[in-house]
Amino acid sequence: MPARVISGKQVAADIRRELAGRVERLRAQGVVPGLGVVLVGDDPASHSYVKGKEKACQELAVHSVVRRLPADAGQEAVIAEVRAFNEDPSIHGILVQLPLPDHIDEQAVLLEIRPEKDVDGFHPMNVGNLHIGAECFVPCTPAGVLEMIDRSGVDLKGLQAVVVGRSNIVGKPVAMLLLSRHATVTMCHSRTRDLPAVCRNADVLVAAVGRPQMIKGDWIKPGAVVIDVGVNRVEGRLVGDVDFAQASEVASAITPVPGGVGPMTITMLVKNTVVAAERTLG
Ligand code: NDP
């Protein structure tokens, strides 16, 4: 039987409905959640991501402000925008769209964001809190991955989870979240030996690599849940890191690309912004 498709669009729509009620309750108490975005340069993908974020905010009546800086803006100019958002009480969440141009030290900029406004969850304080299991903002894509697993009815306790990819923004935080839910987690990367064999052990397989359709059907354990974070453009269309057609013959549930993890990422950003606004009310 082909795998059940876990629709990110559907899950995101459900979460947005829940968020609409929370935004309304905040507004009734005089608080309009606000997101401040700093966008540097003219990378088309970054511009398109920021547009998507603005649109999602608009749809949920969340206030958003985008500060656009030219590609040659200095680090101090970027930091000045972050500091202005830090001081602005109408802004509850701050996002610096990554990647920044090469001449800017990304970590130095992220360090400037007040942790309580760090809705992307990249400040070392939030990263550390995620590791020790304390309250924190979880990065949006990993939070979306966990939400999709949760809402597909999988109980992670005791399962073998394999995460392919160990980036700071996806692989590592996904692994920490799975671990916090008592999965037994294996993290893989470009130096992992016999990756197909490791993947075949996975009850839950998360792919965050950036290599089109690298993960084949015969890498997947029958009945596994497969979450494909990868977004790759091949001949004008988007494909994931997993060979969807092959994998859906073996897995019990799988996320598509597009329409899987992608729609979740922006929704989790709005959710984190709403949470940040709620926290200002105690
Ligand atoms: P990075 O390039 O930062 O990390 C890729 C990871 O994959 C690295 O850990 C790398 O290993 C590993 N890797 C590369 N080649 C192989 C290989 N042949 N075998 C095993 N591991 C390998 O990517 P990101 O984490 O930022 O993104 C991953 C994918 O997710 C991309 O397609 C990206 O577009 C997508 N993405 C999607 C989002 C969404 O909202 N849907 C959001 C963010 C990302 P090593 O560390 O050894 O180099």
Report on the architecture of this protein.
The protein contains 10 helices and 11 strands. β5, α7 (171-180) and β6 (184-188) form a beta-alpha-beta unit. By secondary structure, it is of the alpha/beta class. It folds into 2 domains: 30-113, 3-Layer(aba) Sandwich (Rossmann fold), CATH 3.40.50.10860; 139-263, NAD(P)-binding Rossmann-like Domain (Rossmann fold), CATH 3.40.50. Helices cover 41% and strands 16% of the residues. A 6-stranded parallel beta sheet has the order 1-11-8-7-5-6. Strands 3-2-4 form a 3-stranded parallel beta sheet, with helices on both faces. A two-stranded antiparallel ribbon has the order 9-10. It has helices at 8-28, 44-59, 75-87, 106-110, 124-132, 140-151, 171-180, 195-199, 244-247, 261-280, and strands spanning 4-5, 34-40, 63-69, 93-96, 160-164, 184-188, 204-207, 225-228, 232-234, 237-239, 253-254. It binds NADPH dihydro-nicotinamide-adenine-dinucleotide phosphate.
In short, what is this structure?
This protein is of the alpha/beta class. The chain has helices at 8-28, 44-59, 75-87, 106-110, 124-132, 140-151, 171-180, 195-199, 244-247, 261-280, and strands at residues 4-5, 34-40, 63-69, 93-96, 160-164, 184-188, 204-207, 225-228, 232-234, 237-239, 253-254.
In the CATH scheme, the class of the largest domain would be: Alpha Beta
Strand content: 15-25%
CATH architecture of the largest domain: 3-Layer(aba) Sandwich
Q: Which radius of gyration do the C-alpha atoms yield? A: 19 Å
Tell the overall outline. globular
H/E element order: EHEHEHEHHHEHEHEEEEHEH
Percentage of residues in helical conformation? 40-55%
How are the strands of the largest sheet arranged?
1-11-8-7-5-6
Q: What is the rounded distance between the termini?
A: 49 Å
